[in-house]
Design the sequence.
């Protein structure tokens, strides 16, 4: 059995999640929305970023700007529209919006990630709040950088329906055991293993004592 360090596992885990996110973004842009002049909802990036932050804390934020760039590339080159909104303002807005989801990390740190994400209702609430904040920040930055363009408000309205899908998939990921902090889970498993070993040792000691009592009698 090959063992790897936690750092290497984190790199691999984040790399896999980011690749899944990039493929999902480019697929939704290039296949589902190609030629329609539409901007897909942000659920792919949001779910991947939330998962990265949940599993690895603030170190998982590395996926945020990468997925923003992937979304921008998909929108810039795969969506054919006379008024393509994917300019530098959109790129900056998406990067800032995605990175704003890191504000969930202080809550994770204070209360414990796996305690916050230990049931469906909490996962739904975290996913909903973090994604709404992402939408608001993205729309606000776009509004400020584009000198009051109304597209920032349209951006906010367009993304809202995706929240339902985000919450549903977020809860599904919890049920699959993905929305957990890896380090905390490993420590919890280690503690449980130590307790099980201690219990087994005490049980075997009790059996030996009873066997000895029978021999003595």
Sequence:
């Amino acid at each position: 059995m090959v063992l790897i360090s936690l750092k290497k596992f984190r790199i691999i885990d984040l790399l896999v999640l980011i690749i899944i996110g990039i493929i999902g973004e480019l697929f939704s842009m290039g296949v589902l929305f190609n030629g329609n002049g539409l901007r897909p909802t942000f659920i792919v990036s949001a779910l991947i970023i939330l998962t990265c932050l949940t599993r690895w804390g603030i170190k998982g934020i590395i996926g945020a700007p990468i997925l923003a760039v992937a979304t921008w590339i998909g929108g810039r080159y795969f969506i054919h529209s006379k008024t393509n909104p994917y300019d530098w303002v959109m790129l900056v807005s998406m990067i800032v919006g995605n990175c704003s989801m890191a504000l969930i990390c202080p809550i994770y740190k204070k209360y414990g990630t796996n305690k916050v994400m230990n049931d469906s209702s909490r996962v739904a609430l975290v996913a909903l709040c973090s994604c709404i904040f992402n939408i608001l920040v993205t729309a606000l930055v776009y509004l400020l950088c584009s000198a009051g363009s109304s597209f920032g408000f349209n951006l906010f309205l367009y993304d809202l329906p995706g929240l339902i899908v985000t919450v549903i998939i977020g809860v599904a990921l919890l049920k699959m055991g993905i929305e957990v902090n890896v380090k905390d889970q490993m420590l919890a498993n280690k503690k449980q293993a130590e307790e099980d070993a201690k219990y087994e040792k005490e049980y075997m000691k009790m059996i030996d004592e009873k066997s000895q009592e029978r021999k003595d009698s």
User: Anything to note?
Assistant: Residues 124 and 167 are 5 Å apart (CA to CA).
